[in-house]
Amino acid sequence: MAARVPSFAKINLGLHIGHLRDDGFHQLRTVYQTVALHDVIRISVERGSGIEIRGKDPRVPKDSTNTCWKIAERAMAALKAKGRVVIEIEKRLPVQGGLGGASGNAVAALLGLERSLRRQLSVADRLRIAAEVGSDIPLFLVGGTILGVGRGEEVYPLPDLAATPCVIALPEIAVSTPKAFADWDENIAEDGYAGTGEDARPRIAVAKLTASAPSDRMSLFSREISAWLSAAEIKHSRASGVSARLKRGGRAESLLLDLVRTGIENDFEKVVFPEYPELREVKSVLERAGAIYASLSGSGSAIYGLFATREKAAAAAKKLERQGTRAVVTSTLTRRQYWRKLLAFSS
Hints:
- The protein is of the alpha+beta class.
- It has two domains: 3-158, Ribosomal Protein S5, domain 2, CATH 3.30.230; 165-335, GHMP kinase, C-terminal domain (Alpha-Beta Plaits), CATH 3.30.70.
- The chain has helices at residues 67-79, 101-117, 123-133, 177-189, 213-232, 241-245, 251-261, 269-275, 277-288, 310-322, 335-344, and strands at residues 3-20, 26-46, 51-54, 84-90, 145-149, 154-157, 165-169, 193-194, 201-202, 293-296, 303-306, 327-331.
- Strands 1, 2, 3, 4, 5 and 6 form a six-stranded mixed sheet that branches. A four-stranded antiparallel sheet has the order 10-11-7-12, covered by helices on one side. Strands 8-9 form a two-stranded antiparallel ribbon.
- Helix 1 (67-79) packs antiparallel against helix 3 (123-133) and helix 5 runs antiparallel to helix 7.
- The longest helix is centred in the middle third of the chain and has 20 residues, at 213-232.
- It starts with a strand and ends with a helix.
């Protein structure tokens, strides 16, 4: 039996980078949010053995380095299943865009494999295998609005934000996540200038953090999220703050607005924007077009903006397109919407 499964994207609502751990990963705090943009994964199990990856995008690996390959190999072993696994990846999301494309592909492949075999792993086994394969893969086993901690693989469902119009700008730039982390480490260790002569540029203003600063920054993010969650439990009897200014006041919408008020930001912007100033300009365009919140997603290069209406989102996308930057209008997905769409695809 063949299965066809959508592979959704994610954005990061804030991302704080902590200390470098003994395992070589950085401690992270982030809020993940799934969005409706997606790739499509087709998977089947045939006679024989091994794993085959198919796809037209030359940037997608077709060997054992592919996340779909890794997760299928582990899942087949866990299910004690035999057969030749064929995975076709139809890419619609950018590669190295910060939208979690490869990670979403892996979860779609896992669910498609279960459907093809007519067997299911336990929730615990799914999460374990996902975390073994990649840091942000487990988020796609939850969907909606999610807290990510550890290296990003520890995921906890948060109160869902209302489905919100979203513009995702897709500049033709591939940002290397390992390099972005390396630049972060370099810039928090030193200040002054990077480069020499005419190529010299000011270092990022994160200058000489103390040894305790990374953990302090993690604590700050945790406090911000805790404050937001506490506010989410209160039934608003009146619109306040940003909600009042937008003359809306509905509780679902104010969850997003209250989260924005915490001052969440993506640390990667401090190292990616100086390297690619055109990305900073894309964010500025979204903000000038009326985005409630705009940010780099992950380490980029995708930049997104959240808008009060789809009309405003469409207008912002047109501005970016006129300036030569590809932009698409989509929407965030609540957890219920995410799973309904994920399970609705037919074979």
